[in-house]
Design brief:
The termini are far apart. The chain is mostly beta strands. Helices cover 4% and strands 34% of the residues. It contains 4 helices and 24 strands. β21 and β22 form a beta hairpin.
Amino acid sequence: MPIGARLLATAVLPDARAVTGGHALTLGPGPRRAVLRDGDLLAVYDLDRVFAGDTAPESTVPNPWPGWSGGVHAVSPDGGLLVLCGQRSVRAVDRAGRLRWEYRHGCWGEGRHRHEGPAPCPGRDNGSCRVGVDGQTVWAHVLPDIDHGDPAVDSHEEWVVLGLADGRPLGRARIEGCTAGSYQIPHPDGGRMLLGIGQGQDGSPLYLGHWDGTGLTAHPLGDGFRVVSDVHPSGLAFLTAPHGSGDLLLHRFPDGATVMARGALGEPWDLLAGFLDPYTVLTAAGRRSREDGEHWLLDALTLRPLGPIAYPRAGPRPPAGARRRQLADPGRGWRRAAPVGPRLSAGLPAGFRPRRPGPGGVRPSGRSGPWRGRRPRTGCPGAASRAGRGRSAAR
């Protein structure tokens, strides 16, 4: 049975698709913010203020690399530092755009080349940054600043943990190469992070990183063809969508064992899915047109379909992934999805059982969604193309 939805607020923002895709959103403590591109500027918006009617950005800084539109940026919990993910460095700037620190790394550009000023190099591959839930670290997916001339050595990438205050490297882990783009989803414990990597048609590897305060370790999860979508608020499970066609999966954290699977309900699952609250998953079906695709609510424990979402005939219709700011009317539709029976699914930790919501109904969590590969590639070029990628060129 369709579940009715009522639109409570709208806002016009630059680069709004980055909000519905999830990667412009801050995750963790502090207000829910988005880092959006507006021409040659980068703007930080407090989304709670925006949907209350104040659409002015909290801060606006110039793009330090004119013409560069790649990377996933981040912002500190208090909004005072903007961490920018560039083609060959990670920079932290204050609200006025003043440089606080810079961590230089290998260039994501294609082939051997020299760097002539801040202009971006040819190529669209990029990494990502995320401020840790602890509010003290930055997790950055980068290329190492090396060029040994040996494809077996130069093909790898790095995941580094930096100090938010000064950019000092605290830990690093090796990541296998062939990345076209990446994104990161934090675990609520503050010490672990999920790294999703896009390789176009070649796959979507997933890594789990653990920072214990002294070192960073990372290991792959899954078969390399799952797109991580969200982590349950309890931290005991996470969602993945299929890289191609296939099931939406609920995994146990941290070993990644499959707990529940849900096949497509008509159209194939899109890559956008997430926990609307501890009891409910919001997902989308139909990849060809996200504007016309169908949105579904599923039970968070069993992935049982609760029903498709019925939007009003008049007015705007949210795109897939807009769960982050489309608020449910407590008197209709989505509230019925909140109660969950006491029986747990086989293999799911007992602590996964969520507490029942209060009289106010469900509340969106504002958590992250998945990422789609930036462009298809006819085949992973492998280690040979990584050698001589410009990492030893003059800056």
